[in-house]
Specification:
heterodimer, A: 336 residues, alpha/beta, Immunoglobulin-like, Rossmann fold, 2 domains, 6-stranded mixed sheet, 4-stranded antiparallel sheet, 13 strands, 23% strand, elongated, B: 185 residues, alpha+beta, 3-stranded mixed sheet, 3-stranded antiparallel sheet, 18% strand
Chain lengths: 336, 185
């Protein structure tokens, strides 16, 4: 009889410990989906315990029963998970503990501290409706700072520029080998930081963008240039990877000032816009394919980047240089 | 559920049940002001022992023949017995307080925020207080037996002025929301 009672007590103790000892797992990524390795993860109830950092795929896992005494764990309402990594904003996640229920895997996203930290809370609030869903990668246009465009409303000019740039980019990406699966769009942001690289990066990172475009425009006043609108643009690729830093490209366009409101403006825009968008797509897809070790995807990316390189011409030197870096990285991944 | 500190603790008649506990809090507060700082439970038990000793002495003089005792002595003994019962009630009600305060901070930027539970002296007594940077949820643990009832909650951040909110006893078992707007120091 005593043995039976002892056995029942042991089983009931084991069940209680099992109930209160959840196995917690999860991944840490950037907003763009890049896995973050070596992220320090701490678990807090009454005390803080440190677990091994995330692996190369950004994964972490721990058994709460090995970190905290059973009584503390049973009494806890939840586990506060604290994530930190140099160069990124620290973030916390409260994982509620529900009896007899295994916690769902945690998906944590960290923002670069130099980027989104520069955005005020009010900025973030106004941008939230533009943020791309996970997996999405839109392009954003920060309104150009235009001078000498007195005849037309600068807001209207920016909207016309956006529509024409979108047409050039979408057409080129669809025509290239990269097209098909990519859902490209270009949205105008309600901000005014034209040409500020840090702010562009901050907006792009926060919005999970593929690229951010901005620049300056001026109606030419020099002899022979009168009546010509010169536009100097910055095309910032937002996704970053271990193999390639996010490139920044500069694109210059020139067109008759009386056509700044014309829907046919795209005829004057440089082909570099489309090629830059393909480069951005390549950086983004390379990162994902590398993480998932998808050789077919890597080959496909290599193919369309090579196609862009062979189609480039004079004035595309900066782009070609970036394409070369990317193709070399791909070759390395493919073991060529 | 917002701004727990705006509520008056004694407006609800049910909260009269809390009076012994509040009385004990006052005694702990007064003793702390004269330099006697011991865990709340130790002081309360000491006070209870003191009252029981006085009650014992009074009862010894009254009980042998309580019919002949003076009415004032009987009333005194009754009053001391009531105080003892009140102290016991206060200790029990304090021991029954939840050992944590869970809630949510509502603010625009939740990065770097921490929550501290403060005692009547304004000293932090909680052992944790990190805030979920997405939802603002937090769970702060403390020991009501040793630290007494939590009086206020302080939300602080490196870039903002800390802000404290009163925590009425009635709010200790609930999950309230606390507004926090960053004010530059």
């Amino acid at each position: 009889m005593m043995r039976v009672i002892f056995l029942v007590l042991c089983v009931s103790f084991c069940v209680r410990v099992a109930e209160a000892a959840p196995l917690v797992s999860g991944t840490v990524t950037t907003r763009n989906g890049t896995a973050l390795a070596e992220v320090q993860v701490q678990v807090e109830i009454r005390n803080v315990k440190t677990i091994p950092p995330t692996d190369a795929q950004g994964r972490f896992q721990f058994d709460a029963a090995t970190l905290f005494p059973g009584a503390e764990l049973r009494d806890a309402g939840g586990l506060m998970l604290k994530f930190s990594k140099p160069g990124f904003q620290s973030a916390n996640k409260l994982l509620r503990l529900i009896p007899n229920q295994k916690p769902a895997p945690v998906a944590m996203q960290l923002d670069p501290s130099a980027g989104s930290a520069a955005l005020a809370p009010s900025d973030k609030q106004s941008l939230d409706k533009y943020a791309a869903a996970p997996g999405g990668a839109p392009l954003f246009l920060i309104p150009y700072a235009l001078s000498g465009v007195a005849a037309a409303d600068p807001n209207k000019v920016n909207e016309v520029l956006r529509a024409n740039l979108e047409r050039v980019i979408v057409t080129h990406v669809q025509a290239s080998a990269a097209g098909g699966s990519a859902a490209i769009s270009l949205k105008l942001l309600p901000v005014s930081d034209a040409g500020d690289i840090d702010r562009m990066r901050a907006y792009g990172t926060y919005l999970n963008a593929l690229a951010v475009i901005s620049g300056f425009g001026e109606v030419g006043s020099a002899a022979g240039k009168k009546g010509t609108l010169g536009v100097s643009s910055t095309f910032m690729v937002v996704p970053q990877g271990d193999l390639i830093a996010a490139p920044v490209l500069y694109v210059d366009d020139e067109f008759p000032a009386d056509q700044v409101s014309s829907p046919r403006l795209y005829q004057h825009l440089s082909k570099l816009w489309g090629r830059s968008a393909v480069l951005a797509l390549g950086v983004s897809e390379l990162r994902k394919a590398t993480a998932s070790k998808d050789k077919d995807a890597l080959k496909r990316i290599r193919k369309y980047l090579q196609s862009e390189r062979s189609g480039s011409g004079p004035g595309d030197e900066a782009l070609v240089s970036q394409l070369n870096v990317l193709i070399e990285a791909l070759d390395k991944e493919l073991g060529k | 559920m917002q701004g727990g500190g705006r509520l008056d603790e004694t407006t609800d008649p049910i909260k009269l049940m809390d009076l012994p506990g509040q009385f004990l809090d006052k005694i702990v507060e007064v003793l702390a002001k004269v330099g006697i700082e011991l865990p709340a439970l130790v002081l309360q038990v000491f006070l209870l022992v003191l009252v029981l000793v006085v009650l014992f002495v009074v009862l010894r003089s009254v009980l042998p023949d309580w019919r002949k005792a003076k009415l004032l002595s009987l009333l005194g003994a009754g009053a001391i017995a009531l105080v003892a019962v009140g102290i016991v009630f206060g200790i029990v009600s304090q021991l029954m307080l939840p050992n944590r305060l869970a809630g949510r901070v509502a603010g625009q930027d939740l990065h770097g925020l921490t929550v501290d539970l403060l005692d009547f002296r304004g000293e932090p007594v909680s052992t944790s207080g990190s805030v979920d940077t997405q939802t603002g949820e937090f769970i702060a643990y403390y020991s009501p037996a040793w630290n007494g009832r939590v009086r206020s909650l302080r939300i602080s951040s490196a870039a903002c002025k800390p802000r404290a909110y009163a925590v009425p006893r009635s709010r200790l078992g609930t999950e309230s929301s606390w507004d926090f707007a960053c004010e530059k120091p």
